[in-house]
Amino acid sequence: MEQTLNEIQVEHEPIPLNAILPWIAFITLIVMLCVYFIGAEQGATAVFSGNQVHEYFHDARHLLGFPCH
Predict the structure, then answer these.
(1) First-to-last CA distance in the chain?
(2) What superkingdom does the record give (predicted)?
(3) Is residue 53 within 8 Å of residue 37, measured between CB atoms?
């Protein structure tokens, strides 16, 4: 007796919120850091002095449409 994949019923258990919450916080932090460094790390809002961080993210800034010149 062979069963196809459609005939087999698989039950999925929900993932508890306690297991997902740390990952959501971590991913949110990483996304916010990326948005800051790509979009706002320049001029008066710069955390680091000099142009080194700006030049490192320069192409990503242009790729995402953030103005920098």
Answers:
(1) 69
(2) Bacteria
(3) yes
Of the candidates 33, 37, 34, which has an alpha carbon nearest to the alpha carbon of residue 53?
37
Does this model's pTM top 0.85? My answer is no
Q: Write the CA distances from 28 to 21, 55, 65, integer angstroms.
A: 11, 24, 21
> Which one-letter DSSP state was computed for residue 24?
H
- In sign, the C-alpha dihedral spanning 54, 58, 63, 67 is positive
Q: What are the tens digits of pLDDT across the range 6-56? A: 677 778 888 899 999 999 999 999 999 888 888 777 777 777 777 777 788
Question: Which residue, among 60, 25, 66, has the nearest Cα to 43 in the 3D structure?
Answer: 66
